[in-house]
Amino acid sequence: MTDVPIDSSSSQPVGYWHKIDKDRIQCDLCPRYCKLHDGQRGLCFVRGRVGETLVLTTYGRSSGFCIDPIEKKPLNHFLPGTPVFSFGTAGCNLACKFCQNWDISKAREFDVLADQASPEMIAMAAKEHGCRSVAYTYNDPVIFHEYAIDVAKACREVDIKSVAVTAGYVCPEPRTEFYQYMDAANVDLKAFTEDFYHKLTGAHLQPVLDTLIYIKHETNVWLEVTTLVIPGHNDSDRELNQLSQWMVEKLGPDVPLHFSAFHPDFKMTDIPATPVSTLSRAREIAQKNGLHYVYTGNVHDKSGGSTYCHGCGELLIGRDWYVLSDWNLTNEGLCAKCGTACAGVFDGPAGRWGSKRQPVRLRVRS
């Protein structure tokens, strides 16, 4: 918690808090349950107390807008090949020492929030640029809960889908509200031990597992999972076995799992980058445990990045990083060779966006 001054004139009152005594209120958005005196911010830095209420200081403010390939989120089974309109704000409710987006998620200066946009502006910009979806990404949308939901509502009005890229660290009540408005999610399962979560993220494992189970079994949201594999910290055969076995048992074999390569950053610059061989080993372990769709990420590995039919082994979607090549699915998402269904959200042939990354500036409408 910090005492950095809060500009109440540009902040939006929000919910999910209650008063715990005469001096403090408690934020109930995430399992940190920050207890705040007047003028204090929570660990996320963007939710803080002003007088007798909680406010969001980043409502309508973004660190920037960009059109990405949907595979970058990463989502390999959700409208493949299509462009996604991506944005984030600032701050984070985890304290990952290995953060790969630390310049945004750990930001404590709001001059990084250069772009301002109403939910309707974002929805219309996505539509005008030919995007099929909007992604709440770069930092965790959990902490800009109200803004993300309002954007998602505006997107539904113009037939644009919503994608959450999140660590899944959220309380049950706001989680239920949030996922009413999401169409797809990629959840970071950062490791499979409480020790890792406690020491390297300042959080806990179980709430993330609860979120995964909730999304899979209580919503219609398309779910994929990513684990950033960090040498010496979460890459043992034992942990990889436990993680993938849990996914098969609790989420089923059709939830895609992405093993992503770590690169030295933020407070873990002394750890080497993840070798491709480690990602391949992780993929083999998860496949042996019964997961149908396991991928390697942040590396050039066409085999590890491609989708194969779990019925006959046919190459269904060829990928090299974010570039799609082979496409052997019917419009209904069936294997063109044997007819086995490929789990996912498919809508005809793959898009042709490729690997392009296109920054966007929103126009203020008169």
Write the layout of secondary structure elements.
Layout: E1 12-14, E2 17-19, E3 25-27, E4 35-36, E5 47-50, E6 53-56, E7 61-62, E8 64-69, E9 83-88, H1 102-105, E10 115-116, H2 119-128, E11 133-136, H3 145-157, E12 161-166, H4 172-179, E13 184-188, H5 194-201, H6 206-218, E14 222-229, H7 237-250, E15 257-261, H8 276-288, E16 294-297, H9 302-305, E17 307-308, E18 315-320, E19 323-327, E20 358-360
Parallel strand pairs: 9-11, 11-12, 12-13, 13-14, 14-15, 15-16
Antiparallel strand pairs: 1-6, 2-3, 3-4, 5-6, 7-10, 8-9, 8-20, 17-18, 18-19
Query: What count of domains describes the coordinates?
Result: 2
- Give the CATH topology of the largest domain: TIM Barrel
CATH superfamily membership of the largest domain: Aldolase class I
Order of helices and strands: EEEEEEEEEHEHEHEHEHHEHEHEHEEEE
Number of strands: 20
Termini separation: 39 Å
Count every helix, treating DSSP H or I runs of 4 or more residues as helices: 9
Average pLDDT level: 92
Largest sheet: 9 strands, mixed
